[in-house]
Design a protein that fits this description.
- The structure is a single chain.
- The chain is mostly helical and about 220 residues long.
- About 70% of the residues lie in helices and about 0% in strands.
- The longest helix has 28 residues, at about 115-140.
- Residues about 215-220 have low confidence and may be disordered.
């Protein structure tokens, strides 16, 4: 049996993300990806030009999705601290639900070349601007007391990204509790006051709605 083209492309991306994450881009071959899926190597080239295009699609789609969700969420808020909390929640959720795809944007960016790398770098710059604009807004309004705007942004992103390397669904804390702690970290780094639990719960519920179907579905064929 063969899967529909869209499902097969998705299967290839998921299998490749697993291999890229565990073994690295350079050590992964299209043959290895095909073996995981039980298909011929030539079948992959029906969907993708080369191995690098698969990596590009994984990184681009994940980053684009995160940016779009953060934009939707922050545009619904007016207070800088709620915007910052929204960005942190989405960053934590994306890296918890899709850790391999999300982390590859950092670990394997070097494997992209030419226009593909430029496109991804522009996305990274766009995301960095989203955060620094929130921090600047908070600083200008007196809500944040920043030691250094850019270093604060780097610290927030680094600590939230790290969630993807250790979070387990059956761990000591629920994902909501993890996100709450990281929002607290981020607000402290920004020199802001703590957020009331009911405020966080409302932001978390809104963000989680985007991830209700985030767990991969098994496709046969």
């Amino acid at each position: 049996m063969t899967a529909p083209p869209d499902q097969r492309s998705d299967q290839i991306r998921r299998a490749a993300a697993e291999l890229f994450f565990n073994h690295g881009f350079e050590a992964t071959t299209t043959r290895g990806i095909a073996q995981v899926l039980g298909i011929k190597s030539a079948s992959i080239y029906y969907h993708y030009e080369d191995k690098q295009e698969i990596l590009f699609e994984i990184i681009y789609s994940t980053m684009r999705e995160l940016i779009d969700r953060v934009r939707v969420g922050t545009e619904q808020q007016t207070a800088p601290e709620r915007k910052l909390a929204t960005l942190i929640i989405h960053h934590v959720l994306m890296h918890a639900h899709r850790p391999k795809e999300a982390i590859l944007g950092d670990t394997e960016l070097r494997s992209l070349t030419g226009e593909r790398r430029k496109v991804v770098q522009r996305l990274r710059d766009e995301y960095d601007r989203l955060l620094t604009e929130i921090l600047s807004e908070g600083r200008d309004s007196g809500t944040f007391d920043l030691l250094d705007e850019k270093l604060t942004a780097y610290a927030i992103l680094a600590q939230c990204t790290h969630v993807g390397t250790w979070y387990e669904r059956r761990g000591r804390l629920s994902l909501s509790e993890v996100a709450l702690v990281y929002v607290g970290f981020g607000l402290r780094l920004a020199g802001a006051e703590s957020m009331a639990r009911d405020e966080f719960d409302a932001l978390m519920a809104s963000a989680q709605a985007f991830y209700e179907d985030a767990r991969p579905k098994r496709v046969t064929g």
